[in-house]
Amino acid sequence: MNQPKNHILVIFGASGDLTYRKLVPAVYDLFDQNLLPENFAILGLGRTELENDAFRSKMKEGIEQFAMNKVKDEKHLQTYLEKLHYFSFDTKSPDEYTLLKGQLRELDEQYNTNSNFIFYMATPPSMYEIIPEQLAAQGLSDEKTGFKRLIVEKPFGYDLATAKKLNKELLQYFKEEQIYRIDHYLGKETVQNLLVTRFSNGIFEPLWNRNYIHHVEITGAENIGVGNRGGYYEGSGAMRDMIQNHLLLLAGLVAMEPPALIDSTNIRNEIAKVFHSLRPIDEKDVAKYTIRGQYTASKIKGEDVKGYREEQGVDPNSRTETFVAMKLFIDNWRWADVPFYIRSGKMLPTRVTEIVIHFKATPHHLFADNESICKNYNQLVIRIQPDEGVLLKFGMKVPGAGFNVQNVNMDFHYSELSDTYLPSAYERLLLDCMMGDGTLYHRGDAVEAAWKFVDPILNAWKNDNSIPVHGYPAGSWGPDVSDDLIEEDDIAWRYPCKNLSDDGNYCEL
Ligand code: BG6
What we know:
9-stranded mixed sheet, globular
């Protein structure tokens, strides 16, 4: 495999949680597999005053807890830690960028990295307005000597207007090819596998359209609450936090046309086309197509759990949604009139992300008494997490007299590939950026198209108090009215369990 060019990874927000839990451990994983270039360093920037040694020992803890590859050799870890440097830095102060440039020049000489720099903005989004401009002012976006790449963490804007503003600002200082908008869902092995499942098998694609698919269901459920992120979540809610980015992306991958080539332009063009084909939901119809909910206090396995309004940093009268269920359509030749049902929420019974393709029943029910089973069989479940895998459900004859049909499972679990290493999402995405491959990063136009679809829903929720925020007890599958949304089409949600092959009310969660 090709190795990335020598470079320095500069992390803004290096004293924060993301750096500690995800970024530095992910880069360690790359180091441990010999995937980093020979000359490489990390420069962490943060407000907290820290010496290099203190930064390294904090990062060591992070690696020991969160790296995918367990530390086997202290000396090896030490070699990695020595590549880590820290510089106390006030992101808001333009003067400090001159010092940063000096610091980078020194490290560049010391490590011989040919002025190749990746800048990772692991900061609150308000800093996105400052960092690119100041880097450009120091000539640090100029690629005449060495590559300069900018990684932007979500949220990419707060609505369509702010997303457009952000894109415009970023493009003032960096070219689109230099900008890497990271969505960790695209880094998940199982999400990438969607492309392979669809486009490397002859048996699925002929059926993958409105002629054979009845509806598509996408679930992103979490069994945790907002924890200490209440302050952030209050201004976000499930629509901005999960649906606008992660779950619409999954819909995009399920619905896209086969790309001409597996490369960044072709794949991203196809995803953008899906987003442009989303049927707009008019503000006046929002209540018809969406359900919003908020978890309330309850008991889970005998333990009291707080409601959302009691969480730290949350307004006691908050109307922020912690659950969304919605129905959408993709208006193109392949998907016309096939409903996509999407749901996501916090404090649901289990953590599971999956896509279920529900195929149409046979045109004629030969085994008439089994009509209800016919409706439900032939589901393809693509499990993103946990118990990653793929499950096909189909009808088989019950042995014995008559022709009774029952649903059976054919399943593949990644865990069966015992010696296959599943890299973490950040590991994969950081390596791609190091290699200059933006395929698994969002492009600005697609982000704007997703906001364009979501905007009227958010506006209606904000402006129309008659649209209810339904309470649901923490630990349940959300407000019961979300069943009505799907039942009007005479179908039901799948209630997934921890194990891919199980579903229903009685299973391990
Ligand atoms: C993040 C959201 O983007 O994704 C979090 O901000 C959410 O609220 C997380 O918990 C879910 O990611 P995963 O990989 O655990 O499904």
